[in-house]
Predict the 3D structure of the following.
Amino acid sequence: MNTTAAATEAKVTVATIRHWARRGVIAATKTAGRWVIDTASLARRIAIGARRTRKTIAFTVETLTAIGGSRWQRGDMDRIYFNNPAQLAGLETSHYKTGNISGAHWQGELISNSQAYKLATSIDKLWYDLADGKFHCRYGFSESREASPLEVFHAAVAGIRTAIAAL
């Protein structure tokens, strides 16, 4: 079974299936650069997930700052800012001593350094507004072929949810 079919069956994203395969959570082999998922192993993983009770995620000052957010208050505004939205979304980079990107992965897949730069700069600011209880962002100046700024925003919010659930 391929990653798309496995993601549909497990009701998760393709990136999650790839992550499970890399970590050995499900039995999978890589053939010609593509993951082939063992159906029985995936079924066991789905059953394990169904048995777990869902942990409620609370977006509080304590949980948001525990995962790296910084609180900012002025007047009637009260926000938690995140300085690394691309990393929360699944961008992993390594850098030369000059600061330039030397290697990059987007949600586990190898990408070019220029695309990594575009992903990293596609969101300028990301914050959680404590007054309205919503995430907001200010988009940057670039857009990658790998993901649109809106997709990076949604992936960053999902990364924040995952990080809070892991607390």
